[in-house]
UniProtKB/TrEMBL annotation, chain A:
<keyword id="KW-0472">Membrane</keyword>
<protein>
    <submittedName>
        <fullName>Uncharacterized protein</fullName>
    </submittedName>
</protein>
<keyword id="KW-0812">Transmembrane</keyword>
<dbReference type="Pfam" id="PF09822">
    <property type="entry name" value="ABC_transp_aux"/>
</dbReference>
<feature type="domain" description="DUF7088">
    <location>
        <begin position="40"/>
        <end position="139"/>
    </location>
</feature>
<keyword id="KW-0175">Coiled coil</keyword>
<feature type="coiled-coil region">
    <location>
        <begin position="512"/>
        <end position="539"/>
    </location>
</feature>
<dbReference type="Pfam" id="PF23357">
    <property type="entry name" value="DUF7088"/>
</dbReference>
<keyword id="KW-1133">Transmembrane helix</keyword>
TrEMBL record, chain B:
<feature type="transmembrane region" description="Helical">
    <location>
        <begin position="95"/>
        <end position="119"/>
    </location>
</feature>
<keyword id="KW-0812">Transmembrane</keyword>
<feature type="transmembrane region" description="Helical">
    <location>
        <begin position="161"/>
        <end position="183"/>
    </location>
</feature>
<keyword id="KW-0472">Membrane</keyword>
<feature type="transmembrane region" description="Helical">
    <location>
        <begin position="58"/>
        <end position="74"/>
    </location>
</feature>
<dbReference type="Pfam" id="PF12679">
    <property type="entry name" value="ABC2_membrane_2"/>
</dbReference>
<keyword id="KW-1003">Cell membrane</keyword>
<protein>
    <submittedName>
        <fullName>ABC transporter permease</fullName>
    </submittedName>
</protein>
<feature type="transmembrane region" description="Helical">
    <location>
        <begin position="220"/>
        <end position="238"/>
    </location>
</feature>
Amino acid sequence: MNNRRLLTGSALAILAVLFVAVVLLSNAIFRGARLDLTTNHLYTLSEGTKKILGEIDEPVHLYYFFSDKGTQNNQGLRTYATRVREMLDEMAARAGGKLKLDVIDPLPYSEDEDRATTLGLQAIPVGQGGENLFFGLAGTNSTNGKAAIPILDPAKEEFLEYDVAKLIHGLAISKKPVVGIVSSLPISAGFDPSTRQMRDPWAVQQQLDQLFDVRQLSAPSLKTIDPDISVLVLVHPKDLTDDALYAIDQFVLRGGHLAVFVDPIAESEQVQSDPSNPAAAAMANKSSDLPKLFKAWGVLYDPNKVVLDRTYALQISTAQGAPPIRHVGILGFTGASLNPDDVTTAKLQTINTSSAGFFQLDKDSPLKLVPLIQTSKDATTVATERFKMLSDPKQLLNGYEPTGQLYIVAGRLQGKFKSAFPEKTGKDHLAESKDDGQIVLVADTDMLTDRLWVQIQNFFGQKLTNAFANNGDFFINTVDNLTGSSELISIRGRATSQRPFTTVERIKRTADERFRTKETQLQQELNETERKLTELQSGKSKDQAMILSPEQQGELLKFQNRKLEIRKELRGVRRQMDADIESLGTRLKMINIFLMPLLVILLALGFAWWKRQQRAAN
Amino acid sequence: MNTILTLFKRELGSYFATPVAYVFIVIFLALAGAFTFYLGGFYERGQADLQPFFNFHPWLYLFLVPAVSMRMWAEERKSGTIELLLTLPVTMWQAVFAKFLAAWAFIGIALLLTFPVWITVDYLGSPDNGVIFASYLGSFLMAGAFLAVGSCISAATRNQVVAFILTAAVCFLFLLAGTPLVLDFFRAFFPQGVIDAIAGLSFLSHFTSISKGVIDLRDMIYFLATIGVWLYANAVVIDLKKAD
């Protein structure tokens, strides 16, 4: 008996060891054997990444730093670290030996720690003893090129693949990308004739200089575009020569990436003042357009129209002491207006624009226009002339009627481009692009000016920039994204987080529409009352002008009563919406908590009753 | 195979012969719904996924699965029917396996009856149905692992209450294996490699990994190995106790 017990005991012990061994072994062997059931295939390498990995010529060495010991208490981070590690392993396996991966656990006060810092990683201080934690990725190539992701942020998980692929791609091509700028606005440093002083470059230009090899190209003498240049930025193109247009056209067809900033009104454009006609400066044409190229691409853009949007209108102060008012032409795009799936706009909080235009795609165009910045449905357009004459921004609200259309203020144009110069021939002439191209279109240049996004302070001779909007990030993201190969650009961020309850949103939207109709009604009645009051006023004699006549008082009283009524109705609409949403929730709760159990109980009772009947029959 | 099927049917049928099964299903469904909507704030958070629903599954199983498994063998032992069962022309393996499958199918039925919540989320928005499917699969596998533990412990004791408490305790350890609570305790004695191995034994981490929407072969192997090992131990224990 004792023998048997011993035997069984040891059998169980062996079983336990075997179990642990199987689990550990399978952990090591079956890495990457998995079935990705997510709709967007979140956990599978995309085609773009595979292509980049397949095209590495000179070996790239990656160093993955993860403080294993320092993160013992942070299981969430460890899980993410494993995910990163597995993705890197898979990438290394797919690169055919051209990608080497070193996994390093930098212990506090070790040489590895110094190496992490030298390679550009950022230490995360933890604990009081000055210990640091590292969780980042660095890479080197055979020509001493270095690049790093200083911190792998779990909040940026959906862009992990893009970020790592970008790092590898950057190391594989091994030189600083060249960015060409053609600008008719004073974006770079230069001499300002009006102040007779040197002026500073715009903050966006300063940021660009830090990251890229930037070349200013002169528009009048532009005949060809250097093949070195991988991204061309056009800011406020005005009356470009045919030679310049042809150069840009061929640059795009060759596979060059282009970013275009046009504007119905560029407020920063300097107009020569004419002493004999001071009003001319205000009315001068400050718009830019690229008609010939836009036509060839099938892009519709009207420099005579400005987009207005009540939802994203920014508050501005017009005069000292006056309360700030909402300006429907100066917009701060947030939330849903910024494309969450595009790497250039995802994670950005606000982008401010002023007197922006919009783009549309000709319905015959074979190209695709993906919105990056888009207005809400509460938007409309207005003629540029009206915008210029404006003395009070509130006037823009007169007769404001939203068209219900979403206007694209910035978008990404994709597809095979055709030349705007089909009549040209020559041995280097291209009539159509070979591969899919990328052009980013933005219908505002003011967004690049400092005043819309950054404050620059002088602090003991140091310039401190303090951004209050993400315009600069958007600009840098765009250029950075366009310097990548088309494969890299094709790796979209795969947003996971936002899957809202559309049914509830619909209830809210319907209520919002009702609310707005009521509000418009109120506004109309107010206008009507004002008109009547003025009418009554004009009919009065001069000495009574300062006193309200009984008719006027009656009219005013009527309006006030009506106002109270509508206010009440407005409150009713809101209350009804809340009640609708809540009752839907309650219904669903009841169904999910009680309905099924109730059915099961009924079934059980029915079954018991049936059995009793059977027994009685027997 | 036929013997297993016959035994399986008999066992599964016996669950529904008593009101206990219905009480179990009713409690499971009501709790799953209440946790999802009240503790998980499913409706208020406005996101079309079933995270608040599946997050509570390990904890629901922690109490409900032992309640199912406690009588699997303890009852037979107490009433003496175990001798009868073992004198039938079935092998020990077949008996253990059939009993386990019946109980697993029973829990599977309870899990299937939560389908209104899937319909609800599809009505409210457009969820990632692949993720939901994977989560259901993960939840079912995890229930199987809980059940195998319970089955083995039930065979080791005559007392159902003891079986319940022991099962809940062991499952609790398996659940918590990945949390700092348990790892810190072991850290004092073992190097990091062993600690990671212990963390790799956690029900919770494997379930979380499947419910992200990725069916990883390693997670499948883990759950199937857990079930296999505990069932094997189950057979060994019965064999040992046969004489008692």
